[in-house]
């Protein structure tokens, strides 16, 4: 395979930062598979690297706390599979996933993982990380079965009911579930923002970088958590100014 150099589009990204507008009242934080099955090394069935788990958990905590303080809606979307008679779990009806298991391969380089045993209904792996909630006012969607947080779930109608215009995506995996959700949000004309320090990929650092580059150059904004919260705080301050002058 030939070597590919990642293009430097930093000038484009800097220019686009100046175009970003986020209204806290019309923004939702969507945590994509921020569950123990990926981010708790003690029980994870498809683990990210331990150092990534620590980094992402800390960033996710800052993101949800800051979002709630600003009145931003928080939505937890968790992949959950039922146990079925054959082929044993809902995930195993997918031909690629079934082939990976049959070939006794792991999707996580240098770490063991299981597709057929991943996030089964009622398992510890399907639990949301305790530091993330859910808290009162959060929404939880557990009907995700494939890569997009929109596919087969009621996420779209939930966002429409709340008149959401911007989605802030965070969680696992950068290049699959987060990226697929970003595509689906883009296709629905939502403003897409990915929290770059609150995502990781169990598939490898190369695909993590690919996922971020794909969003930043094709779909939306890729920013660290603190910059995202600064944007939201600035807009909240502007919105509050007229009321303070009365």
From TrEMBL:
SUPFAM superfamilies: Isochorismatase-like hydrolases. One of its GO terms (molecular function) is hydrolase activity. Residues 108-128 are annotated as: Disordered. Its EC number is 3.5.1.110. Keywords: Hydrolase. The keyword Hydrolase applies. This is Peroxyureidoacrylate/ureidoacrylate amidohydrolase RutB. It comes from Candidatus Thermoflexus japonica.
């Amino acid at each position: 395979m030939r070597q590919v150099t990642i293009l430097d589009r930093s000038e484009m990204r800097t220019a686009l930062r100046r175009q970003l507008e986020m209204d806290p009242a019309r923004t939702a934080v969507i945590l994509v598979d921020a569950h123990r099955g990926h981010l708790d090394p003690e029980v994870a069935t498809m683990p990210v690297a331990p150092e990534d788990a620590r980094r992402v958990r800390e960033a996710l905590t800052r993101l949800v706390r800051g979002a709630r303080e600003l009145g931003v809606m928080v939505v937890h979307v968790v992949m959950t599979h039922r146990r079925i008679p054959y082929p044993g779990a809902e995930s195993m009806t997918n031909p690629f996933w079934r082939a990976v298991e049959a070939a006794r391969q792991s999707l996580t380089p240098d770490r063991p993982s299981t597709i057929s045993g991943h996030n089964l209904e009622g398992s510890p792996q399907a639990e949301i990380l305790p530091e993330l909630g859910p808290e009162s006012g959060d929404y939880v969607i557990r009907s995700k079965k494939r890569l997009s947080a929109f596919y087969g779930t009621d996420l779209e109608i939930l966002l429409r009911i709340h008149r959401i215009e911007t989605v802030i995506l965070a969680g696992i995996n950068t290049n699959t579930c987060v990226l697929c959700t970003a595509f689906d949000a883009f296709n629905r004309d939502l403003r897409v923002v990915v929290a770059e320090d609150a995502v990781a990929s169990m598939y490898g650092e190369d695909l993590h970088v690919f996922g971020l580059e794909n969003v930043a150059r094709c779909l939306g904004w890729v920013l660290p958590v603190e910059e995202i919260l600064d944007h939201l705080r600035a807009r909240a301050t502007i919105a509050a100014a007229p009321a303070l002058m009365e």
